[in-house]
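Lab channel / #folding
Pinned by the channel admin:
"Please post every new chain as: sequence first, then the structure tokens as a reply. Keep commentary short and put observations after the output so the thread stays searchable."

First post following the new format, from NK:
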Amino acid sequence: MKKWILTLTLLLLLPVQAFAANPTDDHLSFPDDFRIDTQIVNLPHDQAVLVDIANNRIEIVNLNTSMPLWNNTYDRIFSYNVLTSSNKLVLIVQHKQSLKKITLSTAQATSGKILSTVTLPAHLYQVVSGNGSQLAWSAPTSTSKEQIVVQSSKQLSVYQAPWKQASLTTTPTIQQTFNYENANPTQVKMFSHYVVAQYNGGSLMQTQNVFYIWDTAHPNVKAKTVTVPWNLDADFQLQSNELIVYTTNIKGNPLGANTDKPFPIYARYNLATGQRVYEMIRTLADRDEKWTTDYNNNQVFLIDNSEQKNYLYDRNGKEIWQMPQTSENTVSKFIKYENGILYMIVENLDHQFSIVKQPLL
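Reply from TO:
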């Protein structure tokens, strides 16, 4: 592990006049194989969870001091859920040939303390081990029990404690419904009694993301589907009763995005109806350039290289700020904007990383 000295400059990322002066210097250790596309979940008290799915590494970081509070690496990280009301982080991981549920504290005084470790039944481990299946955990609510959903190549299966067998199953017919040559399961999440499974459908060297919404409280009712336009990468989150989808264009696949057509960069859908409740669209100024959208802390962060600008919006699409990019030598990852402070991870050409923490004027 290399110890990078993280001087909190802007690295020419944004114009100087957009910021207040005198940022402070902090230090943090990043592993050699750290990735800028690490997933981030914000916690209270200026803490954040950094999840590197590719390398199966997770850590809790104090954003004020840039000090790691806890970290670990597992054989595979299946699921991570922050329970803000109870100050807990719940992980479902594969570790030493078993499936474990690990609960950690995220309270300010005890952040990173392991509260419990439970080994889940061996047959559940066999269901997801080594076959590309995805898994998600859902906390109990007033209307539902603690649940685990498994997304395999053909089925969605819901388990409830004590996890002996699936209580519900369904077989999404994504490939047949949309006439894809193939449809690969990529991600699944669960909120209350709603399961949302993401699939990547392919046809004629093009790809399309589909979200399958299954209401397990009414398992025999036809599931809803949400499709993203062709040749866009998409990620999603579940918040309250909404599916939140945000996109990045696939540059040059196969011909690049059409500059004459607007594309959705961020949208919210009602989980009960599958209907869109909000959409933000954008037209690329240059088909050979790329946009990247991220959603964190109830905020939308857009990097539009076709216009050489960065934008920040609230969840309802209201613009908080915009400013031109001034450097092609850095890549950034949005953490949050809070109390006038912008938090980002920045990578330079030498694969060195900084946590940028800078007041905006």
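NK: The CA atoms of residues 65 and 179 lie 52 Å apart.
TO: also worth noting, Residues 1-27 have pLDDT under 50 and may be disordered.
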